[in-house]
Amino acid sequence: MESKLSTEAEKEDLEEEVIDLKGDVCPYPLIMAIKRISEVEDSLRSGRIVLKLVVDHPPSTKSIPRETKKRGYQTELEKTGAAEWVITVKR
Prior knowledge:
Layout: H1 2-13, E1 15-20, H2 28-39, H3 41-46, E2 49-55, H4 60-70, E3 74-81, E4 84-90
Parallel strand pairs: 1-2
Antiparallel strand pairs: 2-4, 3-4
């Protein structure tokens, strides 16, 4: 029971940052994703922050997850529109 409570408390402290990269083409979305990941690396690795990258350039849906996985992060890809995806990067 105690671990469940600490997990719920961790969720309350979780910060979600959305980065809108729509309209940008590769390699710019990848470069911006890597830059922001580097800036918040401690918070990202500790689980205090989750990054949500909104993209509309199809190659970004492959290049960003590939790079973030290489760096040891969990990555989820969700199609949110006809030509729009959200890439979630977390610990």
